[in-house]
Design brief:
With 231 residues, the chain is an alpha/beta fold. It has 5 helices and 10 strands. Helix 1 packs across helix 5 (212-230).
Length: 231
């Protein structure tokens, strides 16, 4: 179902799946081009959750998806505020589902738990953006490579200095006594995780792609985790 939510900067679209009662999982896509490459995959996960009786939502954030807000005007704090507003639009227990750099967007939301897949911090994202820019321009870039211009184009996205500089020191939310965190990675990733699963990193593909088998495995884990948190 296509729905919407309101935040301080206006109104954004939101896809909703599953029942109208019980806990809801609110997804955050990766930032920038990876959002396009993984959107179909994330929607498949959310549809699989609905088949398992778990409600979910995929909000467009400012500068993302069908949002009318130009990406070049967006700051990372605005995306966090919008995600928080999307969560607040549900008057029931909510859980975050973050993919890659999407895990950087749930830190302000009052939620019962965070489930992160292949999480990426701001510094790692900046390194990837720098590599993409260097490949396109064929020039060596220094540490403050974005500071020479107000807006820079990277991989077809126009990004502001404010947005890029806002990524320099932000990290995913860490587990606390009040809010649980579950981290899932691909088995090719050597970093620690609560669960590792076989699959290919779709965010590395040149074009958008999907992996229904992996989506089903992830939906199984999310559904079991949410039910364990609620019990």
């Amino acid at each position: 179902m296509i729905d919407h939510y309101d935040w301080a900067g206006g109104r954004e679209a939101m896809l909703r799946f599953g029942p109208d009662t019980g806990p809801v999982v609110v997804a955050a896509l990766p930032l920038f081009e990876e959002a396009n490459r993984t959107r179909a995959f994330v929607v498949t996960i959310l549809r699989q959750l609905a088949e398992r009786g778990i409600a979910s939502a995929l909000p467009d954030l400012p500068g993302q998806g069908e949002s009318l807000v130009p990406l070049e005007t967006v700051r990372i704090m605005q995306m966090r505020d919008a995600y928080q507003a999307a969560v607040d639009s549900f008057e029931r227990p909510a859980y975050a589902l973050g993919i890659r750099s999407g895990v950087l967007l749930d830190t302000l939301a009052l939620i019962n738990g965070r489930w992160h897949f292949a999480p990426q911090d701001g510094a790692e994202l900046l390194r990837e953006l720098k590599r993409i820019r260097q490949t396109a321009t064929r020039e060596a870039l220094g540490d403050s490579w974005w500071a020479a211009e107000d807006v820079t184009e990277i991989g077809g996205n126009r990004l502001s200095i404010d947005l890029l500089s806002g990524l320099t020191c932000i990290s995913p939310f860490e587990e606390t006594d009040q809010v649980v965190l579950r981290t899932v990675r691909l088995d090719s990733d050597p970093r620690p995780a609560d669960l590792k699963l076989p699959g290919a990193p779709l965010w590395r593909r040149a074009e958008p792609d999907n992996d229904p088998a992996l989506a089903a495995l992830l939906a199984d884990d999310i559904a079991a985790w949410v039910r364990a948190c609620e019990s």
